[in-house]
Automatic annotation (TrEMBL):
One GO location term (cellular component): membrane
Membrane topology summary: Multi-pass membrane protein
Protein name: Amino acid permease-associated protein
PROSITE patterns in UniProt: AMINO_ACID_PERMEASE_1
Species of provenance: Lentilactobacillus senioris DSM 24302 = JCM 17472
This protein's record includes keyword Acetylation: no
An example Gene Ontology molecular-function term: amino acid transmembrane transporter activity
Top-level taxonomy: Bacteria, Bacillati, Bacillota, Bacilli, Lactobacillales
Length: 494
C-alpha cells in the first residue's frame, strides 16, 4: 500500500459510525414513502386502472428488492459513504465512478431546493398569506443544522420522521379496510370499483409501462441504505436486516395501499386525475379518510406530507454531502472536501452542497426558466444510479467468482444472481426510455431535451474523464474484490 492510499484510508475512518440498525432500516424504508405514495399513487390508478397500477408497482417493487440485494452484497463487503461512485469506479471503470458520483450529487443538490420550495407550498394550506421564502428558509436552516450536528442526530431525526409516515400508512390501511366492509363510512363497498367500466386494466401494456415511471420515482430513496452503510455501527447486520424489512414493507405499504385506494375510489374520479404533489385536498389518503368520516383528514395529511417533504430534503442533504466527501477521498473531487470535523461530519462538503442548493433555490425565484432546466437535468438521475448499481454488482460477482472466491466468504450475498441485476438493467432502461415517448412521436426536441437531459450529461462526464485520464474497463481478474471498511482508492495507483 503506497503513502497516498494510506492517507485516503486514514481520512476515511474520520467519518464516525453512529447509525444504529434501527436507523438504517427505518431510513431505507422512509426513503421510499413520500409524496409518491401519499399523492401520486392516485394518478397511477387513474392512468392504468386498479389492476394496471398494482401490476406496475408490484413489478417495480420486485426490481427494487433485487436492487437492494445487489447493493447489500457490495455494501457489506465494502461499507463506505458514497457507495455508488466507489463501486462503479472499483468494479467497472474509474470513469463510470466519476460520472455516477457527480450525477448523484447533482441530483440531490438540485432536489433539496425542490423539496424546500414544496415545504412553502404545503404551509400555504394553513397560512396562505405568509411569504413562501420564509418557510423555505426555515426548512433549509433546519436540515443543515440536523446534518451538521452528528450522524446519530441525523439518524434519530430520520427515524422519527420515517416513523410518522409508517404509522400514517398503517392507520390508513386499517381505516381503508374498515371502510371497504362498511364498518366505517356507512355502507359496504367491496370490490365493485375493480370492475367499474374498463377496470381493472385500463390502457393496456402502454399504460402499465407509463405507470412504471410513477412507481420508479415513488421508490427512489431506497438506495440510501448504501450511503448509510458507511456510517453504520454494524453494517454486516444492519444492511441485510434493512433489505429484508424494506421488501416486505414495500409489499405491505404500496401494494395494500393502492389496493385500498382502488377499492374505494373509482379510477375515473377527477380527484385522482388531478393528483398533485402539493394539493393535499385531493390526496387519495385524504379522500379515503374523509369517506370514513374523519373530519380533520386534510389537516392531518397535510402535516404528514410536510413531514415527508422535510424528511426527503434531510436525506437528500445527507446523501449529497456523503457522496461529495467520498468523491473527494477517491480523487474525483477537490481533496479539500474530504476534511471532517471532530464530530465526524464532512463539513466542507456540507457547506458546498448547501451553497449549491441555496443558489438553485434563489434561481427558482429570480429565474424560473433556469430552475426548470436544472430540475429537468436531475430528473432521471435516480434511475441512472440504479443502473450503475446493477452493473457494478454484476461485475463484482463475476470478478469475485472468477478470482476463485466462494460465496461463503461474503457476509451477505444476493440470491438468484444474475437474474436480479439483469432485471434491474432491463427495467431501468425501459423506464428511462419510457419517460416521454410521445415527445419522440411528435419530434418535440425541446421536450425531449428537457426530459432526457440527465442522460447526455452522464455520457459527457463519463467520456470526459475517460479521455482525460485514459481509463479502461477493469478486467475481471484485476478487479479488487477484497473486503474493506475504508474508502480505498477509486483510481489506479501511479
Amino acid at each position: 500500500m503506497d503513502e497516498e492510499t494510506r492517507n485516503v484510508d486514514q481520512q476515511s475512518t474520520e467519518v464516525k459510525r453512529g447509525l444504529k440498525t434501527r436507523h438504517v432500516s427505518m431510513i431505507a424504508l422512509g426513503g421510499c414513502i413520500g409524496t409518491g405514495l401519499f399523492v401520486a399513487s392516485g394518478s397511477a390508478i387513474s392512468e392504468a386502472g386498479p389492476g394496471g397500477a398494482l401490476v406496475a408497482y408490484g413489478l417495480m417493487g420486485i426490481m427494487v428488492y433485487f436492487l437492494m440485494t445487489s447493493l447489500g452484497e457490495m455494501a457489506t463487503n465494502m461499507p463506505i459513504s458514497g457507495s455508488f461512485a466507489a463501486y462503479a469506479g472499483k468494479y467497472v471503470d474509474p470513469a463510470l465512478g466519476f460520472a455516477m458520483g457527480w450525477n448523484y450529487w447533482f441530483n440531490w443538490a438540485i432536489t433539496v431546493p425542490v423539496d424546500i420550495s414544496t415545504v412553502a407550498l404545503v404551509m400555504k394550506f394553513w397560512l396562505p398569506n405568509t411569504p413562501s421564502w420564509i418557510w423555505s428558509t426555515i426548512a433549509l436552516v433546519l436540515i443543515v443544522l440536523i446534518n451538521a450536528m452528528s450522524v446519530s442526530t441525523f439518524g434519530e431525526a430520520e427515524f422519527w420522521m420515517s416513523a410518522i409516515k409508517v404509522v400514517t400508512v398503517i392507520i390508513f390501511l386499517a381505516v381503508g379496510v374498515l371502510t371497504i366492509f362498511g364498518i366505517m363510512g356507512g355502507h359496504f363497498v367491496g370490490m365493485r370499483n375493480f370492475t367499474y367500466q374498463k377496470a381493472p386494466f385500463v390502457g393496456g401494456i402502454p399504460a402499465i409501462i407509463s405507470v412504471f415511471v410513477v412507481a420508479g420515482f415513488s421508490f427512489q430513496g431506497t438506495e440510501l441504505v448504501g450511503i448509510t452503510a458507511g456510517e453504520s455501527e454494524d453494517p454486516e447486520k444492519s444492511v441485510p436486516q434493512a433489505i429484508k424489512d424494506v421488501f416486505w414493507r414495500i409489499v405491505l405499504f404500496y401494494i395494500f395501499a393502492i389496493f385500498v385506494i382502488a377499492a374505494l375510489i373509482p379510477y375515473t374520479s377527477h380527484s385522482l386525475l388531478g393528483s398533485s404533489a402539493t394539493d393535499v385536498a385531493i390526496s387519495p389518503f385524504t379522500l379515503v379518510f374523509q369517506r370514513a368520516g374523519l373530519a380533520a383528514a386534510a389537516s392531518v395529511m397535510n402535516a404528514v406530507i410536510l413531514t415527508a417533504v422535510i424528511s426527503s430534503a434531510n436525506s437528500g442533504m445527507y446523501a449529497s454531502t456523503r457522496m461529495l466527501y467520498s468523491m473527494a477521498n477517491g480523487g474525483f473531487a477537490p481533496k479539500a472536501l474530504s476534511k471532517t470535523g471532530k464530530n465526524g461530519i464532512p463539513y466542507r462538503a456540507l457547506i458546498v452542497t448547501t451553497l449549491v442548493a441555496s443558489i438553485t433555490f434563489i434561481s427558482s425565484i429570480a429565474g424560473p426558466h433556469i430552475y426548470m432546466w436544472l430540475v429537468a437535468a436531475s430528473g432521471l438521475t435516480g434511475f441512472i444510479a440504479w443502473f450503475g448499481i446493477a452493473i457494478s454488482h454484476f461485475r463484482f460477482r463475476r470478478a469475485f467468482i472468477k478470482q476463485g472466491h466462494s460465496l461463503s466468504e461474503l457476509k451477505y450475498h444476493a440470491k438468484w444472481f444474475p437474474f436480479g441485476p439483469v432485471l434491474c438493467l432491463i427495467l431501468c432502461v425501459l423506464v428511462i426510455v419510457g419517460q416521454d415517448p410521445s415527445a419522440f412521436a411528435h419530434f418535440d426536441w425541446q421536450q425531449i431535451l428537457v426530459t432526457y437531459m440527465s442522460v447526455p450529461l452522464v455520457i459527457i462526464l463519463y467520456l470526459g474523464y475517460k479521455i482525460r485520464h485514459h481509463t479502461k474497463i477493469i478486467p475481471l481478474d484485476e478487479v479488487d474484490v477484497s473486503p474493506t471498511r475504508t474508502e480505498g482508492k477509486l483510481t489506479e495507483d501511479k
